Structures are given as structure tokens and as C-alpha cells.
Amino acid sequence: MLSQNKSVKTTVEVALQILLLCQVGVGTVVNIFLFVHNLSPFLNGSQQRPIKVILANLALGNTLILLFAFPNNIRVFIPREFPTDLKCKLGYFIWLVARSTNMCSTCSLSTYQLVTLAPGTWGRVMLHGRAPKFVRYTCYSCWLFSVLNNAHIPMKVSGPQKTHNDTNTKSKWVCSTTGFSIGMRILSFAHDAVFISIIIWSSVSMVILLNRHHQRLQHIQSPNQKLRFHAETRAAHTILMLVVTFVTCYLLDCICTSLHISFVDSRVWLRRVKEILAVSFPTFSPLLLIFRDPKDPCSLPFSC
Fold first, then answer.
1. Phi and psi of 177, rounded to 5°?
2. pLDDT classification of 123: cutoffs 50, 70, 90
3. pTM
4. CA 133 to CA 136: how far, in whole Å?
5. How many other C-beta atoms lie within 10 A of the C-beta of residue 148?
6. Angle between helices 268-278 and 280-291 (to 10 degrees)
7. Which of 25, 102, 119, 245 ranks highest by number of CB atoms within 10 Å?
8. With contact defined as beta carbons under 8 Å apart, do 65 and 31 qualify?
9. Coil, strand, or helix at residue 47?
10. How many Cα atoms within 13 Å fall on the side-chain side of residue 81?
11. In the predicted model, what is the mean pLDDT of the chain?
């Protein structure tokens, strides 16, 4: 009976591991495609729309999250050489920087869409003619802020800890973390809470503006204006779907993390589910952007 339960646990763990690797593989390919597609106008020398700059930045962050997602598990599943201290520090640092940039980019995307959707706002007037440069500086700031915010991380991460237990082979592949105090965790939560609050605020504001757009659309007779309103509405709906996906994945990840920390005898499958949720948004967000418009994967709000 004990061996049967053990085999079932192993089967579930392997199944979740395969699902995680499939997510990483599919998400990486789709994000690379999205990045190249949004960067192609810049490479061709044509003018790049501001929204495409943000989406290229988001795709780059997603790709790094997926490439550096949980190297411990991938190394256990596909054994190679043992991770060194430098690899552990660099991998964990890049993953956290990409995660922070991903959150900042999502915040920038929802805020920019709100500004372009609101008629006659001071923000739209300020962005007129200077939007590409302003958006580029915002993306650079996201990366710089993320690097500075996580500069202390390499000091808290080290290579696999040596143990006297030779039978525990998995411990040789696992990077270790130490010194994360309660204060640091509170600061990390506050960092996430600020971005999540801005994202929710901009999303709620967009819903209100979309409702006003719908009321105004009933009194419009011009076909051109109706077409423009439909394009703006579709763009805002896409961004709202993206934001809802992000917030949902983040909240579910937080719940799984709390459960994993609360229970000393935490299940292995719970950790696997947490890892799958952590890479869900980087995997599904580019698919959402692509399948919202099959003819042109990135033409969503791009009339801005």
C-alpha cells in the first residue's frame, strides 16, 4: 500500500513536471515571436508605435522568466552538470528582475491604454507627438528599477549545500537561499501591491470609460467614428483581459505560496502547482494577444 501511494505521488509529480516544461517551451517560442513581431518596425527603420514598444518589453520579460524559471526542477528532470554558486546567483537574479519588469510593463500597458482611451485628458495632450520617446524611457526605467530593487538578491543565494547523505541526490541540484527576513518579504509584498493597485485602478477606470463609449456610440451616425470607437473598445477589452489574467495568476500564486509556507509537511504537488501558476501569465499572455486578432497578431490597440 505504501509503495502504491509512493508510485502515485511520483506519477503526479512527473505529470506536473511535464506540464511545467511544456508551458516553458510553448511560452518561450510564442514570446520570441511576439518580441520579433513588435520589434520589426524598428529594425526596418519605420516608425514604431508606442504600444508595440511596451509589448516588446513585456515579451522580453516573459521570455526571461520562462528561460530562467525554476532551474532546480529542470536540472533534476534533465540532469546536466551540477549548478555552481555563480549560476544560482545569476539565474535567480535574472528571474526576479524579469518578474519585476513584467509587472511594471503590465502596469505601463494598462495605464497607457487608459490615457489613450480617455478623450481630452492632460496626459493624452502631453503624450501627443512625444509618446514613443516617453514610452521608451518608461520601459528603460522599469528595467533599471527592477535591477536596483533586486541588487541584494545575489548575496542571499548560493549553490547547492553539501550534505553527508549520499542517497539524497536531488539536493546536489538545488540552489539554496538564506537571509530573507520578514522585513524584506514585507518590502517585496509592498512593491507588488503598489503595481497591482495601479493596474486595478487603471482597469476599473477603463471599464467606466468603455461604458461611456458605449453610450456615446448610440448617438454617433458617422461610420468612420463608429469604426474608431469599435477599434478602441476592442483594444481596451484585450488589455482588460490581459490584466485580469495577470491579477488572477498573481493572486492564485500568492495563495499557493501562503499554503506552502504555512504547512510544514507541504505536498510536492502543491509546490509544482505554485510553479505552474508562476509561469502561467508569461505563457498565456502572448497567446491572448495573438489570438485576439488572427490576421495581425499585434494590431490590437495599435492605432494609437
1. -125, 140
2. low
3. 0.81
4. 5
5. 11
6. 40
7. 102
8. no
9. coil
10. 5
11. 76
Tell me the residue type at 124. Answer: R
Among candidates 124, 139, 130, which has minimal Cα distance to 38?
A: 139
Nearest to 275 by CA among 72, 81, 93: 72
| Confidence band, pLDDT 50/70/90 cuts, at residue 29 | very high
Q: What is the pLDDT of residue 173?
A: 55
Q: What's residue 133's pLDDT?
A: 78
What average pLDDT does range 11-38 have in this prediction? 86
Length of the chain measured in residues: 304
pLDDT at position 22 is 87
Dihedral sign from CA coordinates of 84, 86, 87, 89: positive
Paired with 157 in beta bridges are 177
The answer to whether 92 and 157 have CB atoms below 8 angstroms apart is: yes
Distances (CA, A) of 41 to 56, 162, 252, 298: 11, 51, 37, 12
* Strand 157-158, strand 176-177: pairing: antiparallel
Amino acid at 171: S
Which residue do the cell numbers 516608425 mark?
Answer: 47
What are the backbone angles phi and psi of residue 14, rounded to the nearest 5°?
-65, -40
CA 91 from centre of chain: 17
DSSP label at residue 171: G
Contacts of 215 (CB under 8 A, 6+ apart): none
Instruction: Count CB neighbours of 210 within 10 A.
Output: 17
Instruction: Please give the pLDDT value at position 191.
Output: 87
> Rounded mean pLDDT of 200-205?
89
Tell me 300's DSSP state.
S
- Banded pLDDT at 224 (limits 50, 70, 90): low
- The gap between the terminal CA atoms of the chain, to the nearest Å, is 63
> Is residue 157 within a helix (H) or strand (E), and if so which, with residue range?
strand 157-158
Domains and CATH numbers, the chain: 2-157+182-291 (1.20.1070.10)
